């Protein structure tokens, strides 16, 4: 029994794990980046990822597959990944009829095709069934990637690309593997197009947060009693008139979320040749303003869908939408249906986007 006090053990173990992960910055940054690129090419080309491992590494294989088939940080299409550790009938049949060392290799022979990637995990690098799976994968024309430790064992030299955690301690090697898996998932996910029509967020002072994480944040803000304000527009040419409106909107609550019409919806509203500035650049400019908390894109010409999902407390429009003679505002009924309110803010005279475009045209013709 250890004579070490519990508090000392906790601190030591946390420090050991942190130090090991930091060591990967020097030893494995290049390999992790190469592995992410390998997985991206595989998945974007319509191939699949197969994952193998024993014990804790089996759990890691399932974890990895779940993040790819489900989602990691943002909404996107599911990615094909299969953990070959989960089908007990297959595992026990192969183990009983053949040998435990063949439980993964036979599945790889059945499932792997050229262009696929087989990810093999073994903290020791010596697991016979994992090494056999790698050999079967290479014979099938699949690319092989290993996550291992303890110098890599026999596994590291047997694969196309190895990420070797420099430790013999199984527990903290597994901790490092989880960190690497999360990094790989984030890199892979960033290369995959978002679901068509799914709102996306631009980085702001609050950080880059996927739309799928915004709704849980909305619940947190509600519990904390914060007032959420929504406003939206095309924001084709960001100008002081926009800033004037956003500053007024921000004063109406605690969190300001700015919706931006997608390129397609701007074109539907304003005709061919618009928008003047593409969506990504419009979102980046808005996100750079101190007054904005989050910036989200939406596909419709009007924002009923994101408003219905987010349920902001306050929906802000310019005074040109104010009744009784203002422009139509179909989303008003959505806001009022859940008890939200619509507020109208003053416009800065002579500072609409049309005014700016007209002045630019007059300047160029002179």
Question: What gyration radius follows from the Cα positions, in whole Å?
Answer: 27 Å
CATH topology of the largest domain: Rossmann fold
Low-confidence stretches: none
Number of domains: 2
Task: Tell me the total number of β-strands.
Answer: 11
Number of helical segments?
14
Could you give the order of strands across the largest sheet? 6-9-8-7-10-11
Text of the CATH class of the largest domain? Alpha Beta
Overall mean pLDDT stands at 90
Q: Name the CATH architecture of the largest domain.
A: 3-Layer(aba) Sandwich
- From the spread of the alpha carbons, the general shape counts as elongated
What is the CATH homology-level superfamily of the largest domain? Answer: Glucose-6-phosphate isomerase like protein, domain 1
Instruction: Tell me the strand percentage band.
Output: 15-25%
Distance between the termini: 88 Å
Secondary-structure element order, as H and E?
HEHEHHEHEHEHEHEHEHHEHEHEH
The structural class is: alpha/beta
What is this structure's SSE topology?
Elements: H1 6-44, E1 49-53, H2 56-69, E2 81-83, H3 88-97, H4 105-111, E3 117-122, H5 128-139, E4 143-149, H6 155-158, E5 161-165, H7 170-190, E6 201-202, H8 211-223, E7 228-233, H9 240-250, E8 255-261, H10 263-270, H11 279-287, E9 294-298, H12 304-310, E10 314-318, H13 332-337, E11 341-345, H14 353-365
